[in-house]
Design brief:
alpha/beta; five-stranded mixed β-sheet; 17% strand
Length: 609
């Protein structure tokens, strides 16, 4: 592809003989076809939101798989050389084996019998004398395939539905070639998109889930912002996420997976524990601007004392800035495995490091090269942690077991009590204030709709509109994604989001209005006013009654009271001109000519305050 910079990774869906088979992108550039067969190929291409001309180059190449394997057999030791200093034993020993191996190659007549015999002998030498002969490195790198997909960011929800098809079809394609390959999907919303948009591919994914090769984890419906949603929204994120996983795959989710979220509320450990979730995963705290977080493995304690196991992803390579930054889109190279292990703190508690590998955001996840490298690192390579392919649950359970045993031995527990505050992305608290207002208003409206609908169902046997209410919740939960609610997405995203909020609000208004009318019609009021309080506590508030602002006292929680409209009227008098005062029955406030406050008089206490 040419001109890919404005597009941020142009992407395609490849169809062979009418069937979706794989995504193509800057990291996944080929698909394997059997030779001597006729195919009809279609490519559905996404070029981004920019008005740019692109050139797409297509080739058909015949590959000899023997040479492909030889390439990786030689490339991994060569890659390992870049990790060592040239005066170290590991360097000289690895270079020695490479020298011996390549001397088996006969380039006199390329692709001759002698050439392939030499290639076979070169690989054979490395497997007999190098791979698996140096298993002395103490650490193990647990590798889980993953592709972090922002549900909306520099693209809209509509494009994400296609990113999901591209990325997950690539996973399925590679799993057919690599039976050891394990992959993790973290957001049920993405699977629902796939189910709706590409049911045949979804069926293949679901089959791999049933076989234990694809793991569905993460608990939340989407990877939501960790600060701005209400407590109830956090609960619903988990409820909708775990329910989908249970109904679709008969599985549970015990990991809260939020690798890219901009800080984490102190309320989360309590909500997690009460939801059957005992593990928390992120890497974002490694992005702190000033302070390196003291732990990568620790017990996270919430407001009420609830305690969960926290795991920070520590994946990084030598090119990363400073000593803090980590990533959730790792690679499988000698450097990445070794640097990630070195970055992990609390080594005295475990000999394992958990790494997710694969390109994100439409990058299609793991590549063939990563899977080939893993096969060889899994056998054992001099001076590099030995890899093994695991699910996230397998790795985290193993790490936690060792972690807890070493807590018992040492009597010391790495523990953090309180909020996980991220020293980065702080502008997300104020960016695009409109989306934050819509979210909060929608949370209130959903709460009120549910409370009054339940009252109407109990008292009047009315229908509870779970279809509209659940659909509305899914819209609100979707828009709490960690680039949408914080305000870090492009304008095109918000054009869609604001429209979604408006339509959802209208549907909820219909349900809410129907419940209020039904309830009011069945409450003896003698023509008076019925005032509802949808809150869980007794309330005194001001309502609009026939154009008057009336104060209504002591309305019972999730109940109502009947008034005749003659209750105490709430009035504020404003005097203009030179008086410049605002006055009610409690206070008189006086301003000077610049409208600075110069007096606040408390009428009840009869004194200046």
């Amino acid at each position: 592809f040419e001109g890919f910079v404005p597009c941020r990774n142009p992407q395609c869906i490849l169809y062979v003989n009418g069937k979706m088979v794989q995504g193509l992108d800057m990291k996944h550039t080929d698909y394997v076809l059997e030779a001597d067969t006729e195919y009809k190929v279609h490519i559905y291409y996404y070029s981004g939101l920019y008005d740019t001309d692109y050139k797409i180059g297509l080739s058909v190449i015949k590959t000899d798989l023997r040479l492909e394997q030889l390439y990786y057999d030689l490339f991994l030791p060569y890659d390992a050389l870049t990790v060592y200093n040239d005066d170290e034993f590991e360097y000289t020993e690895t270079l020695k084996h490479l020298d011996i191996a390549v001397n088996f190659l006969d380039f006199t007549v390329p692709y001759s019998d002698e050439f392939f015999e030499g290639a076979e002998n070169a690989s054979k030498y490395l497997y007999e004398n190098y791979y698996g002969k140096y298993n002395s490195f103490a650490a193990i790198a647990d590798c889980t395939g993953h592709t972090h997909i922002d549900v909306a960011w520099l693209w809209t929800y509509g494009q994400t539905k296609e990113k999901v098809q591209r990325s997950f079809s690539t996973v399925v394609s590679l799993m057919k070639r690599y039976p050891e390959y394990k992959f993790m999907i973290s957001q049920p919303q993405l699977l629902e998109f796939l189910k709706e948009e590409a049911p045949e591919m979804y069926a293949e994914v679901k089959k791999l889930i049933s076989e234990g090769r694809i793991e569905v984890e993460g608990a939340m419906w989407v990877e939501a912002d960790g600060n701005l949603p209400s407590g109830e929204s956090f609960v619903r994120q988990i409820l909708f996420g775990k329910r989908f996983i249970k109904e679709e795959y008969n599985a549970d989710s015990t990991i809260l997976w939020l690798p890219d979220v901009f800080g984490y509320s102190v309320a989360l450990p309590q909500i997690m524990k009460k939801s059957g979730i005992d593990k928390f995963v992120t890497s974002k705290m490694g992005w702190n601007e000033y302070n390196k977080f003291p732990y990568d493995l620790f017990k996270w304690v919430g407001l009420d004392g609830s305690e969960v196991s926290a795991h920070f992803l520590v994946g990084r390579g030598r090119g990363f800035e400073g000593d803090r930054t980590t990533t959730y889109t790792g690679a499988i190279t000698s450097d990445f495995m070794l640097t990630s292990w070195r970055r992990q703190q609390q080594k005295e508690y475990t000999d394992e490091v958990f790494i997710t590998f694969g390109h994100g955001d439409g990058g299609g996840g793991p590549t063939l090269e990563m899977l080939e490298m893993q096969r060889r690192l899994n056998k054992g390579v001099l001076g590099i942690p030995q890899t093994r392919m695991t699910t996230a649950s397998e790795s985290l359970n193993s790490i936690e077991e060792k972690f807890n045993k070493n807590i018992e031995k040492t009597g010391k527990t790495p523990r953090w009590t309180g909020e996980l505050y991220l020293e980065f992305h702080r502008g997300t608290y104020t960016s695009v204030a409109k989306v934050k207002r819509y979210n909060r208003k929608s949370e209130f409206k959903l709460h009120n709709t549910e409370v009054l609908s339940v009252l109407d169902m109990i008292l009047n046997k009315a229908e509870y509109r779970s279809d509209i209410i659940n659909d509305s919740w899914k819209t609100i939960l979707l828009n709490q994604f960690h680039d949408v609610l914080p305000g870090s997405s492009i304008q095109a995203v918000y054009d869609d989001v604001f429209d979604m909020y408006e339509k959802t609000g209208e549907r909820l208004d219909g349900v809410l209005g129907s419940a209020v009318k039904s309830l009011a019609a069945n409450i003896p009021s003698d023509g008076k006013w019925v005032v509802f309080n949808p809150n869980g506590f007794e309330a005194t508030d001001v309502i609009n009654c026939d154009g008057k602002s009336v104060t209504v006292h002591n309305i019972p929680p999730m109940g109502w009271t009947v008034i005749d409209g003659t209750e105490e009227e709430c009035r504020v008098e404003v005097a203009g001109g030179t008086d410049r005062t605002i006055e009610n029955k409690f206070y008189k406030v006086v301003f000077d000519e610049d409208f600075d406050i110069i007096s606040i008089f408390d009428k009840r206490e009869q004194r200046e305050v």
